[in-house]
Amino acid sequence: MKEGDLEEWPPRFWKWHIVTDSKPAVEVAFTDPRRLGRVRLVDCPGKDIRQHPPLSVNGPDPVVDADIFTVDLLKKKMKSRKVPIKALLLDQTVISGIGNWVADEVLYQSRTHPEQYCNDFSDDHIQRLYDAIRMVCQTACDKLGNSDEFPKDWIFNHRWGKGKNGGMLPNGEKLAFLTVGGRTSCYAPALQKKTGSVPKEAEAKEAETKEEEPAGADEKKPPSRKRKATTTSDETEPPAKTKSRSRALGRNSQPGPDASLSKKKTATANQAPGRRSTTNTAPVKNGINDGRLRPTRTR
User: Fold this and answer.
1) CATH architecture classification, 60-210
2) Domain ranges of the chain
3) Nearest residue to 77 via CA among 106, 119, 120, 111
4) CB contact at 8 A, 132 and 120
5) Smallest Cα–Cα separation from 109: which of 140, 141, 81, 78?
6) 95-98 contacts: CB < 8 A, separation 24 or more?
7) 71 near 60, Cβ under 8 Å?
8) Can you tell me the distance from the alpha carbon of 160 to that of 104, in angstroms, rounded to the nearest whole number?
9) 252 DSSP assignment
10) What's the whole-number average pLDDT of the chain?
11) Over the stretch 215-231, which tens digit does the pLDDT of each residue have?
């Protein structure tokens, strides 16, 4: 128990509390915040408790039954079935005492992908998996389940905040989450590679993800289409086309001479009545007066 847990007794989320009539009395409290546990009373000596169901159908405990739980036993269990390795670890009839976060920690420490079939591992990988099971379970028991004392390199310390820091380990490796055996699995894709076969659903999902990645990349960075600016000798282009070309060429494009004439006509029309322009609106060709009309002063 952590510091401060004994300040409130029975502790928070307790579901079952018993006090023995022995001297001194012993108090036991069962806490279950998620309400997933069950309590069964069995009338038998304590040393025989594992001979009664449901404990009698459970597999060996990696800590208590270290002499029974051997690498050969684990290899035999893995080779006799074809299920994802994460689902096998969660099966209490195979190995006792491995829950969801313990299984994820074992797979991370042994660099094992949670979806890979349990019957498709090399002997070296099985040995690595066995060592990780023994180490994680023994460490958790030695620390009495106090997560504050767990090793800093455990994925346990980073798996709970799925949205914090982008789901990332201190070394920068990203974490991902998928469902295996009906439970959410946390793993590091860059470190826990598949070395064998996986369920067809997992293969299809991975192929679909790979197909979607290029499409997503194209949407973020569309290919640039640049138009080369072209020059033309036709300077009598209609105003509408000039405006369209101006947009295509950018801010540096200049309006044609017809646009200037249009502006002059508009300015002449907007002059006050009774006044004459200081210059005659003589025909202009290429910006030069042909000389038939001369400028006159305003009266």
Assistant:
1) Orthogonal Bundle (1.10)
2) 60-210
3) 119
4) no
5) 140
6) 95/59, 95/60, 95/61, 95/62, 95/69, 95/133, 96/58, 96/59, 96/60, 96/61, 96/62, 96/65, 97/61, 97/62, 97/63, 97/137, 98/62, 98/133, 98/137
7) no
8) 12
9) T
10) 78
11) 444 444 444 454 544 44
How large is the average pLDDT for residues 76-99?
96
Work out whether the CA dihedral 35, 137, 73, 64 comes out positive or negative: negative
64 closest CA partner among 43, 75, 52, 49 = 49
| Residue whose structure tokens are 């002499």 | 67
φ and ψ of 199, to 5 deg: -55, 150
Count, in order, helices (H) and strands (E) of the chain. Answer: 8, 6
Other C-beta atoms lying within 10 Å of the C-beta of residue 200? 8
- Which region holds residue 35: left if phi is over 0, alpha if psi is between -120 and 50, else beta? left
Task: Note whether 175 and 168 are within 8 A (CB).
Answer: yes
> Which of 125, 119, 71, 121 has the alpha carbon at shortest distance from 95?
71
- Cα separation, 249 vs 113, in Å, equals 55
Q: Around 262, how many Cα atoms within 13 Å sit in the side-chain half-sphere?
A: 11
The pLDDT of 240-268, averaged and rounded, is 48
Is residue 38 within 8 Å of 21, Cβ to Cβ? Answer: no
Q: Which range among 22-26, 88-92, 232-236 shows the weakest confidence by mean pLDDT?
A: 232-236
Those residues whose C-beta lies under 8 Å from the C-beta of residue 101, and which sit 6 or more positions away, are 156, 159
How far, in Å, CA of 19 to CA of 183, rounded? 35
| Reported pTM | 0.63
